[in-house]
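Page 37, continued from 36.
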C-alpha cells in the first residue's frame, strides 16, 4: 500500500465487514492463480456459482488452491435448493465434508421453500458450518415488499446465519435491483434502517451498483457476486482510487 496517500483504512482478513465475495463461474487453474497473485488479499470468500461444482473437472485442485490462500469456498445456493427439492440434503452435507468445505449457502431464490423449513436447516447446519442465507428471488418479476425482506432477513439471522445475502443474480437484474440493473434505493434504505448492514452481503455484480452501495454504506460495505476480473476495480473503488469514488473516499468526502 502506498503510505504517502491518505485513503480509507481497510479491515484485515479474516474480515467481518468490508467483505468481497467473489463468484467463480468456472475459472481454470491458471485463472485462479492469476486472481490470487494480483488481488488475492482482497478476496474474502469464493462461491462456485449455482451448481457448477458438480461438473467442475478441476474441483479438488481448485479447492486446494483456494485453501492454500486461506480463502474459504462455498458452493452455490442453487445446488442446495436442488438437494432440498430432491430430498438429498444429507448427501450434500456428506459431500461438503468430503470436500473439506466449512461454508454453506441456503437460499430459496429458485424454489418455493417454507420459511420454517429454511430456518430449521440453518439451525441444523450452524453447529458445523458457517452459513450464508440468501433472501430474494431470482425472478425479476417477483417483487417483495421491503417489510417482507426485513422479516426474512431477521428470521435467517435469528436462526444462526453468519451473513444474509441480498439476492440480485449474477446479472444484477433481480432482487434488490430492477430488471435494468438500477438500484431499488428505497428497498435498500428500509433494509439498512432495520438491520445492521455488517450482517448483510449485497450482491453487486455491476460497477454502478458497487459505486452506489459504497457511497451509501461506506467503504467497508459487504459486496457479493463480484466477478474475478472486477475484484481489483472494486478495491480501488473502496479506497477512492477510481474516479467514481475519489470525492467520497480520497478527498475528505466520507469514511
Amino acid at each position: 500500500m502506498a503510505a504517502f496517500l491518505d485513503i480509507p483504512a481497510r479491515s484485515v482478513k479474516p474480515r467481518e465487514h468490508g467483505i468481497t465475495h467473489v463468484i467463480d463461474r468456472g475459472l481454470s487453474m491458471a485463472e485462479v492463480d492469476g486472481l490470487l497473485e494480483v488481488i488475492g488479499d482482497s478476496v474474502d470468500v469464493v462461491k462456485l456459482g449455482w451448481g457448477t461444482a458438480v461438473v467442475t473437472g478441476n474441483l479438488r485442485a481448485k479447492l486446494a488452491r483456494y485453501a492454500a490462500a486461506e480463502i474459504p469456498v462455498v458452493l452455490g445456493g442453487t445446488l442446495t435448493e436442488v438437494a432440498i427439492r430432491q430430498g438429498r440434503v444429507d448427501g450434500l452435507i456428506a459431500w461438503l465434508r468430503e470436500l473439506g468445505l466449512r461454508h454453506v449457502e441456503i437460499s430459496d431464490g429458485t424454489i418455493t421453500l417454507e420459511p420454517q423449513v429454511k430456518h430449521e436447516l440453518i439451525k441444523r447446519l450452524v453447529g458445523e458450518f458457517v452459513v450464508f442465507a440468501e433472501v430474494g428471488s431470482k425472478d425479476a418479476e417477483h417483487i417483495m415488499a421491503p417489510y417482507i425482506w426485513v422479516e426474512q432477513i431477521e428470521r435467517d439471522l435469528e436462526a444462526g446465519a453468519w451473513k444474509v445475502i441480498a439476492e440480485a443474480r449474477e446479472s444484477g437484474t433481480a432482487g434488490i435491483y430492477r430488471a435494468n440493473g438500477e438500484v431499488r434505493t428505497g428497498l435498500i434504505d428500509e433494509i439498512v434502517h432495520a438491520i445492521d448492514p455488517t450482517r448483510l452481503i449485497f450482491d453487486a455484480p455491476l460497477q454502478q451498483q458497487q459505486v452506489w452501495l459504497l457511497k451509501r454504506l461506506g467503504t467497508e460495505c459487504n459486496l457479493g457476486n463480484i466477478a474475478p476480473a472486477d475484484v481489483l476495480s472494486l478495491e480501488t473503488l473502496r479506497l477512492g482510487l477510481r474516479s467514481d469514488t475519489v470525492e467520497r473516499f480520497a478527498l475528505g468526502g466520507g469514511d
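The chain has a mean pLDDT of 95. Flag for discussion at group meeting. The CA atoms of residues 73 and 106 lie 14 Å apart.
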